[in-house]
Amino acid sequence: MSKRLTREEIMQILLQEIHSVGVSLPENVSEKSSFQEDLKMDSLALIEYISRIEQAFQVEISDDEWQTLSTLELVLNYVEEYYSK
Q1: Is the dihedral of CA 40, 25, 76, 32 positive or negative?
Q2: Which residues does residue 71 pair with via DSSP β-bridges, in sequence order?
Q3: 33-85 in CATH: which number?
Q4: Is 32 helix (H, G, I), strand (E, B) or coil?
Q5: How far apart are CA 12 and CA 42, in angstroms?
Q6: Could you read off the pLDDT of 23-59 as tens digits, one per residue?
Q7: pLDDT at 72
Q8: 10 Å Cβ neighbour count for 65?
């Protein structure tokens, strides 16, 4: 990323990428929303989402790390932390 994004900008990109993998966002989506429980993402959508996030933010996230990133907030924090290094 060439410029530093705000937390809100990162969140907007995360939400856009969810929509891009064919998942409808509920009205009550929040940072606390779980990919599988709240957003009803199946494993195929989740894999595609992971790939899109890696491309959008130019990050590489290991399989072990992704297993711990179960909510929007955790991914948001991960991306913020990645760019604060």
Answers
A1: negative
A2: 34
A3: 1.10.1200.10
A4: coil
A5: 21
A6: 999 999 999 999 999 999 999 999 999 999 999 999 9
A7: 97
A8: 13
Residues of the chain with pLDDT > 70, as a percent, come to: 96
Rounded to an integer, what distance in angstroms lies between the CA atom of residue 52 and that of residue 58?
A: 9
Query: What is the C-alpha to C-alpha distance for residues 40 and 35, in angstroms, rounded to an integer?
Result: 6
Quote helix, strand, coil % in the chain, to nearest 5. Answer: 55, 0, 40
Residue 55 DSSP one-character state? H
Give, in degrees to the nearest 5, the angle at Cα 46 between 41 and 49: 115
What pLDDT score was predicted for residue 4? Answer: 82
**Cα separation, 62 vs 49, whole angstroms:** 14
Residue 19: HSE in the Cβ half-sphere, 13 Å Cα cutoff: 10
Which pLDDT band holds residue 83 (cuts at 50, 70, 90)?
confident
Which of these, 81, 63, 80, 66, lies nearest to 13 by C-alpha position?
Answer: 80
Segments of the chain assigned E as strands: none
